[in-house]
Write the C-alpha cells for this entry.
Amino acid sequence: MMKKSIPAVLATVVMAFSLSVHGSNVAQYKDGTYIGKAQGKAAEGEVTVSIKDGKIANAEVLKHGDTEAMMLSATDQIVPELLEKQDINKVDAVTGATLSSQGVINAVKQALEQAKVTP
C-alpha cells in the first residue's frame, strides 16, 4: 500500500513545483505606454504597447513603410493574438505578410522590454 502512495505524492509535488516555476516565468509589466521600433518589409515601423493592471491592454502600429494591405493583414491577426496570449513569443508571423508582421512582433518585443518589472 505504501509503495503506491509514494509515486502519487511525488507526482503531486512535481506538478505543484512545475506550476509554480511556470507562473514565475510570466513577465510582469509596469502600467504605461511604451514605444518599440523594428524593421518591417520596406522600412522601420513603430508600435505603441499599452499596459494596464500589469497586462498588455493594446498594441497599435504608429508608423510603417509597408503597404497598407500587408500591414492590416499583419496587425489584424497579431494584436488579438497578443492580447489573448499576453506573450509576444507565442504570436506567429502572418503568412503572406511575414516581413511586415515580423517587424511588428520585434517592435512589440522592444516595447515590452521597457515595460518589464525588474526584480
Observations:
- Helices lie at 2-24, 68-85, 98-115.
- The chain is about 50% helix and 20% strand.
